[in-house]
Amino acid sequence: MALPPEILYTPVPLLHQPLKLLRGMISDLFTARHLAYRLLIRNLAAKYRPSMFGYLWAFVSPMVATGGFVFLSSHQILRIVDTGVPYEIYVFVGILLWQTFTDAFRCPLEWVSAFRSMLGRVNFPREALILGALGEVLVHLTIRVILMVLVFFWFRVSLTPTILLAPVAIIALISLGLMFGLLLVPVGLLYGDVERGANLVTMLWFLMTPVVYAPPINWPETLINRLNPVSPLLTTAREALFSGSLTQLEGFFIVTSITALWLFIGWALFRLALPYVVERVAT
Amino acid sequence: MKQQSLVEVRSLSKKFCRDLKKSLRYGIRDIGREILGRPQNAERLRSDEFWALRDVSFSLFSGEALGLLGRNGAGKTTLLRLLNGLIRPDTGLIGIHGRVTPLIELGAGFAPILTGRENIYVNGAILGLPGKIVDDRIDTIIDFAEIGDFIDTPVQSYSEGMKARLGFAVAVHLVPDLMLVDEVLAVGDLGFQRKCLKHMARYLSNGGALILVSHNMHLIQSICERCLVLDAGRIVFDGTTPGAVEKYSTLNNHAASGSYDANVTNLNESNPVIIDRVDIHPIKAADIRPGGAIQVTLHFKSLEEFVPVTWGFSLWTADQQIRIATNVAKYDGKLHRLCGGAGTLSCVIKDLPLIPSKYFLKSGIYEVETGWPIARHGWEQAAACFEIKGEETEANSRHRIDHDIVNLSVEWID
Q1: A124 or A244, which is more confident?
Q2: Residue B160 above 90 pLDDT?
Q3: What is the DSSP track for B148-204?
């Protein structure tokens, strides 16, 4: 008796067998871990080895950005309302969190794009690219956390129990970035416009997010807190780190649950769309 | 009971788009249909689309090596990509009983900045080799690659051949059920190629199956017993390798003649002589046999009289890769005259020392002094072909397996 083949490729949409799709996603996610680890090491080495300062660069950019904003506000060029803690720390933490978000937003497309020619040559579990991108975000986050601990120690920031909640908020922030990033991958691989547009949007988004200023309290500026999904996550993460009172919990929970759902949908879409992209862009 | 096939391909088709902008737009639309779970409009070609593969069906069994022949753009690489699941079929299906390893590119994922040793781990992971196995076999891999002290040098300073060596050294540790090989051996030196061949032979004898794409006829002939010839996305031949090689060379000839024939069919100042046709017949026999004789007749048309001229021919193997012999009349002290209008030139080739197979004959009419061709046949159009038939003897089948051309007349002495 003929056994059914282990591998079957047909033009039937994969959504017609959702359970099979789900099983494939989960088993590939599992097998992709080792490859993701190797690719992460490969990419970090490729990024930092041919440079004199190596990982120091990861420390430099938030410090320079913080320096800039501290200069602007101390000379009253940029008028900032009271933020409750020393402005240096407020901005510094804000920028670290924001950069973590943009890392997560940027990395998926960057990774898939970098491995585009390999996508047309080897059938490796595609999830490795997502996990690898996530790995890079976490490595950079680790460097930032080290920096943050040093700064907290230096400025003798008093810690509150809510700090235990900070990792949860940071994970939510990363998930949100990853979700947007993943949703952009298929179209972003086809059209270069997406990457350029994303850079532009990121800049605008930065201005529309309470990173270097406190969340607004007057209408209509409060729309920034309500309409910008980064806002409640970043604010909650920062408040958890040092203020102790969490003002945007409601928004935080709404955004987080929507993110969790769409992160999964984004992953499934990524998987469904990739073969169509590969046939058109892989060399 | 019929043996279970390893690979089943049924009416497989794939379309691509020539225009980049349209291709990207179609891409978005196709993704849209896919995520809505709606079937694609597979049978219809949209504007600027063409069939890269059309109605391809074949099966492959364990231990079999299948060669893929075809001119550039015939669909060979597309077929490999479909078999590897990198892209999805538009129609038809592919079923594979087992694991597939692609060697479409050796050294996939090599980072130029990393050392050879580090890249072994990356490449191994991409191909699905567990890290533990790479750890255990790292020395074997380095030995096999034979790149010596360069193993701890960044790969960016390797030559293409060295990269291929290292990539292959990793790939030999995979034990897939089906291996897809795409022209990867071309970059290596002879020693490396021999090593690859040996590995493939061992892999096949252990029951593995192989699909090989190459333009190197000798490589194909030494590995594959069966070949598919693809032309413009369709299978135009499925059978033994010698037959496939022959089919492939006629495809190439037709392609070459397509552009040239139009100019050549008319006599004019720049083409004062044209060879219309070349006939080859056995003499005093029904078939052409080893040791027999053939008569070659050139049918030509000439605008004016040419005196004196000479003519000659060259004899080629079935794959048109090896020129076996060349004879020109003037070297045997014979000169010819072309009268205006149609005429013929002929000669008899005696005692053909060739083993049974197909052969091609290309011919030409030349100026005596300069040797410059006045007219040629078999270069710009399909060459004249003849077949030497022989009994199915052990000696003949041995000749065929060894790719012999000539049968020497030997007297064995004690």
Answers
A1: A124
A2: no
A3: GGGGGSBGGGS-HHHHHHHHHHHHTT---SEEEEESGGGGS-HHHHHHHHHHHHHHH
Note whether A46 contacts B111, CB cutoff 8 Å. Answer: yes
The span from the CA of A109 to the CA of A130, in Å, is 9
What contacts A153, CB < 8 A, 6 or more positions away? none
User: Cα(A67)–Cα(B107) distance, rounded to whole angstroms?
Assistant: 45
Smallest Cα–Cα separation from A32: which of A283, A263, A271?
A271
State the Cα–Cα distance between residues B410 and B406, nearest whole angstrom: 12
Q: How far is the CA of A201 from the CAs of A105, A106, A108, B31, in angstroms? A: 11, 11, 16, 24
* A9 with B122: Cβ contact below 8 A: no
Under an 8 A CB cutoff, do A9 and B85 touch? yes
Contact call for A120 and B86, based on CB within 8 A:
yes
A19 touches chain B (CB under 8 A): no
pLDDT band at B253 (very low <50, low <70, confident <90, very high): low
Rounded distance between C-alpha atoms, residue B24 and residue A279, angstroms: 10
Radius of gyration, alpha carbons of chain B = 27
**Range 109-168 of A in CB contact (< 8 A) with B:** 115, 118-124
Integer angstrom CA distances of residue A37 from A29, A34, A115, B199: 12, 5, 15, 30
The burial of B370, by beta-carbon neighbours within 10 Å (0-12 exposed, 13-18 middle, 19 or more buried), is given as exposed
Tokens at B274, concatenated: 């044209």
Given CA atoms A238, A240, A246, A249 in this order, what sign does their dihedral have? positive
Q: Which residue's entry shows tokens 């956390």? A: A145
Site from A30, A47, A121, A278 to mutate, B interface, most B CB atoms within 10 angstroms: A121
| CB within 8 Å: A9 and B113 | no
Q: Quick one: B154 exposed, middle or buried, by C-beta within 10 A (0-12, 13-18, 19+)?
A: middle
Q: Is the ipTM of this complex over 0.90?
A: no
Write the DSSP assignment of B336-375 as a string of letters.
EEEPSEEEEEEEEE-S--BPSEEEEEEEEEEETTT--EEE
Contact with chain B for residue A34, Cβ under 8 A: yes
Amino acid residing at A267: W
pLDDT digits (tens, 9 = 90+) for A32-65: 999 999 999 999 988 888 888 877 777 788 888 8
Q: What is the value of pTM for the model shown?
A: 0.79
Per-residue tokens: B199: 């590995």
Say if residue B272 is preceded by a cis peptide, omega within 30 of 0.
no
> How close A174 gets to chain B, by Cα (Å)?
25
Dist. CA B108–CA B182, nearest whole Å: 13
Residues in chain A, overall count = 283
What is the spatial distance between Cα A185 and Cα A107, in angstroms, rounded to a whole number? 10
B chain contacts of residue A43, beta-carbon cutoff 8 Å: 111
